[in-house]
């Protein structure tokens, strides 16, 4: 599968962190974070990979707020994106760090 850009000229999300620090949607590597393989025990590199993978959700939350204003829905989008950026499961987004 090739990475298909949207009219915004970026690969649509959601993106995930795959083994060896690869980042992208299913079957499409768009980036790789050096040393982010969990077997390397480099928490900073792994955290960087999660932050990059959360970019589509973070952008979507910002666009939602810009278009609709701040609301409960916007807050849910923000918390979910932050949880993903921090490498937490999305169900954990109700408890920000």
Principal-axes geometry comes out as: flat
The termini sit apart by 36 Å
Task: Calculate the mean pLDDT score and round it.
Answer: 82
The major beta sheet can be summarized as: 3 strands, antiparallel
Structural class: mainly alpha
**What portion of residues is helical?**
40-55%
Order of helices and strands: EEEHHH
Beta-strand proportion: 5-15%
Count of alpha/pi helices = 3
Across the major sheet, the strand order is 1-2-3
Q: What is the total tally of β strands?
A: 3
- Please mark out the parts with pLDDT under 50 across 5 or more consecutive residues, or reply none: 93-97
Computed CA radius of gyration, to the nearest angstrom: 14 Å
What's the short version?
The protein is mainly α. It is 40% helix and 8% strand.
Walk me through this protein's architecture.
Residues 93-97 have low confidence and may be disordered. By secondary structure, the protein is mainly α. The protein is built from three helices and three strands. The chain has a three-stranded antiparallel sheet. α2 runs antiparallel to α3.
């Amino acid at each position: 599968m090739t990475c298909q850009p949207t009219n915004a000229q970026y690969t649509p999300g959601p993106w995930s962190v795959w083994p060896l620090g690869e980042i992208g949607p299913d079957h499409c590597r768009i980036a790789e974070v050096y040393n982010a393989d969990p077997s390397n025990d480099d928490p900073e590199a792994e955290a960087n990979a999660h932050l990059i993978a959360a970019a589509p959700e973070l952008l979507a939350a910002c666009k939602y707020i810009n278009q609709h204003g701040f609301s409960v829905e916007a807050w849910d989008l923000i918390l979910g994106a932050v949880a993903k950026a921090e490498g937490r499961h999305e169900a954990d987004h109700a408890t920000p760090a």
